[in-house]
Amino acid sequence: MPAAARPTLAGCAFVAVLVRGGCGGGASSTSAKTDATVTRQAITTTPQKPVPKQGKRQQLTSCQGQVGGFVASMDSLRRRLAVGLTYDQYVAEVRGIRSTYAKIPIDRVEIDCLSAVGTPAELAFNGYIEAASDWGKCVSEAGCSSARVEPVLQRRWRIASHFLSEADDGLNADAP
Fold it and tell me: CB-based contacts of 103: which residues, under 8 Å, 6+ apart?
C-alpha cells in the first residue's frame, strides 16, 4: 500500500478516540422504561466482564512488541549514518524501515504507546523519508554537489534523531 494511502498511527488513534467517545450514554430517550429494559436485557444476555488493567510493565512489553521493531530499525539506520552510507544504501535502509512500519498492528496499539513511542517514531521516520527525497532530488540534478545537499541532510537527520530518541525514551520508560 502506498505510504500516502496508509493511515498514520496518530490519525488512527484520533479516529479510535472519536469512535470510543461516540459510544455509550448521554443520548436522550422518549421512554426511560425502554432504556432500562434494553440495558437490563443487554446485561442479562451478554454479561460484561471487567477488563483487567494491564500493569505498566505489561503495557511496555506490548508496546515493545508492537512498535519496537520499527524503532529498532531506525536506530540501526542512525548508527549506520554515523559511519557513512551511499545514496543507494540509504534508500534501501528507508525501504526496509517502511516495510517494518507497514507491519505495525495499528488497530491494536494502545493510546499510551502511541503517544509515548508511536508518534515520535513516525515523526522520525518522516524525517528520514524527507532526507531521502532531498538526496534523491540532488542526485537527479546535474551539478548538485554533496557540499550543497549535506547540510540539508544533516539537519533532517538531526531532527529525526531527536524524535527517535523520544521514541526510545518512551519504550524504555519505567523499564527496570
Answer: 69
CA–CA separation, 105 and 97 (whole Å): 15
For cell 554515523, the residue is 82
Single-letter amino acid, residue 72: A
CA dist 57 to 2, 110, 123, Å?
Answer: 34, 13, 25
Q: What is the pLDDT of residues 53-82, one digit of tens each?
A: 444 444 444 888 889 999 999 999 999 998
pLDDT tens sequence across 119-165:
999 999 999 999 999 999 999 998 888 889 999 999 999 999 999 99
